Amino acid sequence: MNLVEALAGIEAASTTNRATRSPRVDGLPVARPPERVQRGTSCYAFTTIDVHGRLGDRSLVRLLNWLPGTLLKPTVLNDRIIVLRRSPGTVTVLKLGHIRLPAAIRHRCQLHAGDGLLLTTSAARDLLVVCTTAALDQALGSYVRGRLL
User: Fold this and answer.
1) pLDDT per residue over 70-127, tens digit each?
2) In the chain, count of helices (H) and strands (E)?
3) Which of 3, 41, 48, 91 has its CA 20 to 30 A from that of 25?
């Protein structure tokens, strides 16, 4: 179940129970500000993948100081998340600073040209995490169900 389905289910359940609750103004619930949260050290970028497997956004590659020719080792988790770590591996940073995901990884993760991907890294780590939209849908849907139900 993705985020939209999770929210639709919650909204439908709250609509059926409206008669038993006190009247209120229709609309989205107002989120409470979180308890004092430390600002994260993670950096994010949203990008697409092209027909050759290149990730469009290079900002996090520059932030990591991965120069052209840097060897990266890809690891795939649950066919939805790709972790690239600086290590002798099968992927290199291309001449213009792009990363090209090998065809085997694209097929395993069911990635196609134009698909959106969330990239994230942390200043404390020398790795880049690539999340597919399927992974995002699953994570956000689980979060919403856990927080609103």
Assistant:
1) 999 999 998 899 999 999 999 999 999 999 999 999 999 999 999 999 999 986 788 9
2) 4, 6
3) 3
**Long-range contact list for 60-64, CB < 8 A, 24+ apart?**
60/119, 60/120, 60/121, 60/128, 61/93, 61/97, 61/98, 61/99, 61/128, 62/97, 63/121, 63/123, 64/121, 64/126, 64/128
Angle, alpha carbons 138-16-33 (nearest 5°): 55
Amino acid at 30: V
Q: DSSP letter for 29, please.
A: P
User: From CA 130, how far away is CA 83, in angstroms rounded?
Assistant: 6
Contact 81, 67 (CB under 8 A): no
